[in-house]
Design a protein that fits this description.
Elements (H helix, E strand, L loop, with lengths): L33 H26 L13 H10 L5 E3 L5 H7 L3 H7 L25 H14 L6 E6 L6 H12 L4 E7 L2 E2 L2 E2 H4 L8 H5 L3 E5 L3 H16 L5 E6 L18 H7 L4 H11 L8 H20 L6 H5 L8 H19 L4
Parallel strand pairs: 1-2, 2-3, 3-7, 6-7
Antiparallel strand pairs: 4-5
The structure holds thiamine diphosphate and magnesium ion.
The site of magnesium ion has 6 residues, from strand 4.
Length: 365
């Protein structure tokens, strides 16, 4: 796909499958094999199980705050699947499928959400930066990684994620401007899930599309249906080819919907209607790819229950391993920012250690 040929102002997203999983284009050739599509579907199903179970562990008090991914699985699994081992990924927070596809273990993800900083020193996954909570701060890092790739004459690319809300941050603009000027091989995926916590996207920006922001930087931009695995995969592949050939960065706006809460501490009923949530239900990415596979007669949905049963066992085993991991140490909180701790942080650490020592000696009530 020629990514530079698309108009980023076009509000109609690039789409292959309709809500019923039927192909809407007249002359479309399937570029992924049937078995690749089945694999993608299974990965999406797996990610959905992980997500559902993570929420349940949090509700049981066995994990801290977690940002649900429900409804956004197609774009994250597709993103993870197009990257080669030598490509970089710079995450935000709501693309669990991409971390999983990049080789981050479930145990590491669970450890992270149980407060272990060490979980971000991924054992198997290569060329992936830590999960980023300060909104948009990952984009300058991604542009810098991309510049490094170019500087060293490597053939790799860097893929980064941001939310619709994140596009209003200065870091986003500065980094994309830099990336375009220096033609760095950076693909930025905006997960437009229509909300930044409670703020709807129409109050976030007056732009016609978020992809349109690419015009001001001077890079290709495209709006794609992020709930359509096949469309998402095509757009990502086209963008990666473009960047890998040395043409510079690409901005992708993936339209999706956060079907769950912002995090396990949020209640979306307070700021959106049930009617709106119901409108998005039929566009669900998992159901859509399933319908496509069923129409093609290459998937039997009756086999799913057994598959899911196996996934849940595997997820639970990895959660139990994370739960049995020794408690994180105080050092962990301070260890990863500076090679030598500045005196004020040293003092903070000591103060907290004193507090822990004092409270440990208090008699049990
Ligand atoms: C710099 C910064 N400001 C505010 C916050 C608090 N905060 C966390 S998530 C969020 C909204 C993010 O919305 P969006 O970028 O659309 O991503 P989404 O959560 O929808 O995936 C905000 C304001 C933060 N983490 N960092
Ligand atoms: Mg959002």
């Amino acid at each position: 796909m020629d990514i530079a040929a698309y108009d980023p102002l076009n509000e109609t997203p690039y789409q292959i499958l309709d809500a019923q999983g039927k192909v809407i284009l007249d002359h479309w050739e399937q570029s992924l094999s049937d078995s690749e599509l089945i694999e993608a579907f299974k990965n999406m199903l797996f990610v959905r199980q992980f997500d559902t179970m993570a929420i349940s562990y949090q509700r049981q008090g066995r994990m801290y705050t977690y940002p649900p991914n429900l409804g956004q699985e197609a774009l994250s699994v597709a993103s993870g699947s197009v990257l080669q081992k030598t490509d970089w990924m710079v995450p935000s927070v709501r693309e669990m499928g991409a971390w999983y596809m990049k080789g981050v273990s479930l145990k590491e993800l669970f450890l992270y959400y149980r407060g272990h900083e060490i979980a971000q020193r991924f054992e198997q996954a290569n060329r992936i930066m830590p999960i980023t909570v300060p909104i948009a701060s990952q984009i300058p890092h991604a542009a810098g990684v991309g510049y490094g790739i170019k500087f060293h004459g490597e053939k790799a690319v860097v893929l980064t994620f941001i939310g619709d809300g994140g596009t209003s941050e200065g870091d986003f603009h500065e980094a994309l401007n830099f990336a375009a000027v220096w033609k760095v091989p950076l693909i930025t995926v905006i997960q437009n899930n229509h909300y930044a916590i409670s703020l709807p996207v129409h109050k976030q920006t007056a732009s016609k599309t978020l992809a349109a922001k690419s015009l001001s930087y001077g890079m290709p931009g495209i709006r794609v249906d992020g709930n359509d695995y096949i469309a998402m995969h095509e757009v990502l592949s086209g963008s990666i080819d473009y960047a890998r050939q040395g043409n510079g960065p690409v901005l992708i706006e993936a339209l999706t919907y956060r079907r769950g809460a912002h995090t396990t501490s949020d209640d979306p009923k307070k700021y959106r209607t049930q009617e709106e949530e119901q409108e998005w239900e039929p566009k669900d990415p998992v159901n859509r790819l399933r319908s496509f596979l069923v129409h093609k007669n290459i998937w039997n949905p009756d086999e799913e229950a057994e598959l899911i049963e196996g996934y849940r066992k595997e997820i639970d085993t990895q959660f139990l391993e994370a739960e049995q991991y020794p408690p994180h140490s105080l050092d962990d909180v301070f260890a990863y920012m500076f090679s030598e701790l500045p005196p004020e942080l040293e003092a903070q650490k000591q103060e907290y250690q004193d507090y822990l020592n004092a409270t440990a000696q208090e008699p049990q009530k």
